[in-house]
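Thread: quick sanity check before group meeting

JM: Hey all, I'm pulling together slides for Thursday and realized we never actually wrote out the predicted structure for the chain we discussed last week. Dropping the sequence here so it's in one place. If anyone has concerns about the input, flag it before I start.
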Amino acid sequence: MEVADSHTHMDLQSGTVEEALTKAAAVGVTTVVQVGCDVKGSRWAAETAAAHENVHAAVALHPNEAPRIVLGDPDGWSRQGARQGGGDAALDDALGEIDRLAALPYVRGVGETGLDFFRTGPEGIAAQERSFRAHIEIAKRHGKALVIHDREAHADVLRVLDEEGAPERTVFHCYSGDAAMAEICAAKGYYMSFAGNVTFKNAQYLRDALAVAPWNWSSSRPTPLPHPGALPRPPQRPVPDPGHRPGHGRGPGDRGERARRGHRREHGPRLRLLRRGPRLRLLRRGATEHHRSITVTCRSRMVRESHAGRG
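JM (edit): ok, ran it. Output follows.
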């Protein structure tokens, strides 16, 4: 089975790109999307995609990067090092560079962008939202997929998407909303990426959301679980586990199963990660916070279209 890693940060890993791609290919991960989180990382993503046939790029300012650009980070609250703020003009300059990069042929997505109220305090929300709105416009103008980082900001992310008008392809990276939000996303045609944190004991709301998500596109990050001190590592392939399905054993239980059966009767089969084969069991457990960004995507429409665009 060949899969595509639709959200990776090889620039945060040790070793070379070639080494990472070789290790990924050894476990069946044959295509990767390198995602930028700031101007430097986005340039690196675009350059890496241009140099490697099986690498595509997404470019953006991470939600937490926007307030750092505007307000600075003298105390290192973002854990990215101290920096002086440059005001709105600096944010405009950074967004201009993202706009330029988004026009490049090997850049297939704009992201990760969105809103993150977990790390950014009230003083940084305005910069985050202005940056998010700009990224939406850039994605639509260049015809690129929008990759959303949404942490503790669900209602506001949906509001901004409604107000700006979402791009045709909008992906919620590492979906973290509940079932009600999943129904809204499904109705609007947004893609939802369910990651390994769906197996957390306290993640019942994610399993409930998974139970109502359409099955036509899905993803599973292999290494999303926090593990202090661990380094980002190349992806490992998820493997079939015929005896496990989300919602069974570690899942939502009888209520989730009833919801799935009802959905199948009304809409047909839902989220199947291996085409029509068995569900997936996640192998990897340890990861840093940065490595929450890794996503393995099975039959991703964005990646499939990226292959077509290579000519």
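AS: nice. The chain has one domain: 3-174+221-238+282-309. The chain has a mean pLDDT of 76.
JM: adding both to the slides.
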